[in-house]
Amino acid sequence: MIGYDTQTGLERKFCPPDAPLALGEGAMIEGYASLFGATDQGGDVVQAGAYGACLKRMAAEGRRVKMLWQHDPEQPIGIWDEVREDGRGLYVKGRLLTEVARGREAAALVSAGALDGLSIGYRTKRAERDASGRRLLSELELWEVSLVTFPMLADARVGAKAEDTAEALLRDLAEAFSGARRVLAEG
């Protein structure tokens, strides 16, 4: 879990894509923003179908899931043309808007391999805990899917080869903050 906003109830999660995000013609990007059945570091498991009701409701209302830069609601950077559930998870496909300064930045960073993560912003509508204490998320209200630089989950890296001390320190700090947020959210 990247974070929990106590005022809005918005949560964020990172999911590493299968392969590094690549920029296609017309600044197109695609990948999985969430995987079903995978336990994240916060002990949460998104269940198949968790996004279904939200995606149907948004489509009926003519609304779209937002594409943001680093979860910042003031910095939309593109359009998700396709957001759907399949047997594996939440698949997204869209295009960066290179007419926007951050969209150009994101396109350059994705193209260079410096930006390779997807992260979701959502509100939990329905969840329960299993016997091992994991939170099983069965209905989510998806707000946005962001392109992110630093995943907050230890294994949420794509194509990482050698890890230097600074990266390890950042990961350890991220894990500590994530744990503290869980404690505060549950308390």
Write the layout of secondary structure elements.
Layout: E1 3-4, E2 11-15, E3 28-35, E4 44-46, H1 52-60, E5 66-69, E6 72-85, E7 89-96, H2 101-112, E8 117-129, E9 135-148, H3 165-186
What would your notes on this structure say?
This protein has 187 residues and is α+β, with helices and mostly antiparallel strands. The chain has one domain (3-186). It is built from three helices and nine strands. Strands 1, 2, 3, 4, 5, 6, 7, 8 and 9 form a nine-stranded mixed β-sheet that branches. Strand 8 (117-129) and strand 9 form a beta hairpin. The protein is globular. The two termini are 16 Å apart. Residues 151-172 have low confidence and may be disordered. Keywords: Hydrolase, Protease, Viral release from host cell. One of its GO terms (molecular function) is peptidase activity. Pfam families: Peptidase_S78. This is Prohead serine protease domain-containing protein. Residues 25-167 form the Prohead serine protease domain.
Helix content: 10-25%
* Multimeric state: single chain
Termini Cα gap? 16 Å
Structural class: alpha+beta
When the domains are counted, the total is 1
What overall geometry do the principal axes of the alpha carbons give? globular
β-sheet strand percentage: 35-45%
Low-confidence stretches: 151-172
Helix count, DSSP H or I runs of 4 or more residues:
3
- Radius of gyration equals 16 Å
The total count of strands amounts to 9
Mean pLDDT: 78
Run of helices and strands: EEEEHEEEHEEH
